[in-house]
Specification:
The complex is a heterotrimer of chains A (338), B (283) and C (277). Chain A has ten helices and eight strands. With 338 residues, chain A is an alpha/beta fold. In chain A, the strands form three sheets. Chain A has a four-stranded parallel sheet with strand order 2-1-3-4, with helices on one face. Chain A has a two-stranded parallel ribbon with strand order 5-6. A two-stranded parallel sheet of chain A has the order 7-8. The longest helix of chain A has 25 residues. Classes of the chains: A alpha/beta (338), B mainly alpha (283), C alpha/beta (277).
Chain lengths: 338, 283, 277
Amino acid sequence: MVTAGSAGKINKEPGESILSAKRLGKSPLNKRIAVKKVLIIPIILILLFSVLSCQTANTISSGKKSIVVTYSILGAIVKDLVGDKADVTVSIPNGLDPHDWQPSAKDIEKLNHADLVIQNGLGLEGGLQKTLAAARDKGVKFFTASDYVTVRHVGAGEGIPSGDPDQALGAADPHLWMDPLTIKSVVAALAPVFKTDLNLDVSSQAADLENRLDSLNNEITKIVAVIPQENRKLVTGHESMGYFARRYGFKLVGVIIPNLSSQAGVSAADLAELKKAIEDNPVKAIFTELGTSPAVAKAIGDETGVKVVELTTHAVPVDGSYFTFMRNLATVIADALK
Amino acid sequence: MDWLLTPFTNNDFMVQALMAGALVSIACAIAGTFVILRGLAFIGDALGHGVLPGIAVALLVGFPGILGAAISAALMIGGITLITRRSRLSSDTAIGLLFVGMLSLGVVLVSRSNSFSGDLTSILFGEILGISTGAIITQLVATVIIIAIAVICSRPFLLLSFDPEQAQVAGFSYRLYHNLMLLMIAITVIVSFQTVGALLVFGLLIAPAGAGALLSRRIWVMMTYASGLGILSTYLGLLISYHFNLAAGAAIILVTVVIFFIVFITQNMRRSRPKIPLEVTHE
Amino acid sequence: MNSNKKDNKIPVDKTGNSVSETGSTSIIQASNLSIGYGNEVVVADINFELKPQQAIALIGTNGSGKSTLLKAIVGLQPVLGGHLSVFGARPGSNHRRIAYLGQFHASGFVLPLRSIDVVRMGRFPLRGLWQRMTREDDEIIHSAMSAMGIEGLAEYPIRTLSGGQQQRTYLAQVLAHRADLLVLDEPTSGLDAGGRDLYLQAINAEIRRGASAVIATHDIQEEAALCHQVMLLARRVVALGPPQDVLTPEALLATFGIVVTGEKEHLHVIESKHGHD
């Protein structure tokens, strides 16, 4: 039987409260529980963090000036120069490709709060460009190494024309650390900057360092002397040996990755060009380095019969010394080409 | 409690990232609500992929990325419409291939650039830590536009989500309001790729709104929850990224997904309890 | 029960036309009408007229063309041939005056909507994009929900309601519109006996208020018998006219392919073979 008038009533389940037609929706108790459930999420997450982040203590400034150097090789030099008179931090971890490394939040923070930022310039630190520009706008003090050196430019026949603006004739080469005397110019420029911007006197250390760099230069000249003139050809994974070649009389031959940076991929046409270049310029060895595809290097080596040797061009060795770095480099080259 | 706040009090760029992320969250909450209610998740994903070639071309040639994104998003939507119109059968395969094609095209184009992998990373995963004031203002304008569209079209959007036929009969042109909705979603994706990236914006579109749908009985409450959860995710994501040195954009998205699953699980636990019966009395 | 039914029925004259003052203005006029999907004609050569304060029932199996005709009337499907005018204009041009209830709901049940929100949507065609809902709107919504017996369910999300309760909600939405023409596809599907009674009362109230109705239904007994006209469809118009003339065993056989059991007044339709291919 249908009772039209009772249409509004709702069945009462034993133990449940009656919902009258007036009372709308969930009871206040249910609503509070619902709200609480939502709040639980952030509370749990925050508690998780308090447990996990206990270790990350903020490094309180020790009163020393903070210098941030963008990459490790230049950082080695700065540390040599400054000793422990200042806190020197390197942004890009040693061994990582400086060209496309991206900073984390803490890295950006360090850069923004530095007393002095030392960068290479000429676009070496590709992934950092935006951050560096922003820091500059904020008024952070900058020192750009490339401002104080005789910049090398890409010469004819040194790279494979690929249409990249970086590879074009006349493009600036950022790999200025490959020549001790170029570094010497940087050191010479740094000392007065430390005095004015950081109130640090490192003039004696600078003089000492410059002398040692001169000695290093002589050393390397001797090491590579064993290589006969006709073997002084450098075919490397990417065009980073320019300054070394200029200083010590080597010729650069077309490269596997046709760009001054290590990021672009390899095209088939470029590889074919390289093969032809090697056939035109017989070499004893080709050198792979950071960013070069080992498979490609091996393929070339197999096809043309040349030795494939690995060079470390972007990373400081275990002892953290620039000098060891350059000596190793020179020795490997000499052994391969003599 | 210090570590909850100092990353932000110490650093302007963190505050800017938070602002950008909050604005994106609000836009995504509103657009995402309708994506979920109307089952348009597929389209949201498509847009995320579809903007890539446009952004790549814009980067190479030198005009604003947003313009490129808009153009290729329009092409993507056009492509999908064409495919679905032509075949009555499921067009999943064709649309899926369109995604892959657009993505590959984008990568191929970006590979012509000098800073290939850096650019690709920033397009796919965003650059929230390096966001400029200009980008924040663009985001603000876009968010305001989206709020405006949602408010003005609230009734037809509601009808459209409830029953497209009813909407048409009630005098709200299905085509007009459906396209407006797509436009709203497209604007959200196009502008948001700067903060969290083209791939991840999809997560920010769906996860907070999905959680909101589980928590609310009314659409506007759902949007509020979605906005709140999105902003919370931005804050927590940035915090995680700072303290653990992790990618910021991805951290934010990860948090939104985790929050969604927490809500999902707790809601399902609630459902297993007996409901208040709703039967009307009759014999 | 029979006496109840007579009370609900609108007075008619011998020919089955309602005695109303609005004269001969047609609500719906169809002549030589062909309807279908795409290019495929489902029913051809339909001719009928719906006058004010009248109700016409469309009876036929699924696929017989009922839903297609309803959709053509509200403008969801284009007319494939012939002539169809609603309120003297093209179908679909008078949305403020027409309320439609489809057979299936495309609505996603993820939707966070309360049942009162669903009913409220019935006022949207009248209020458009901008106009605020007034107290009068709220009263109409409330009385529509009362008429279907669901005002106690107002705050419940529609997804938590049973099938019958949902159907009542959709009907309340139609009632809230206060339309001049109701176009309903299987309005009683899923309703229990109490719901059906409320629905019948509500429809009759609407007609008394001045509305007209086109109703596709399986419910020959109650609904069709109450309408002024009945159209039997089986991919063609099998019969059209007042219920007592049309609802004969022969006509029903042609429509459904049935076996009639029981007394003539209570016709039971058992489909064994469709009256169309």
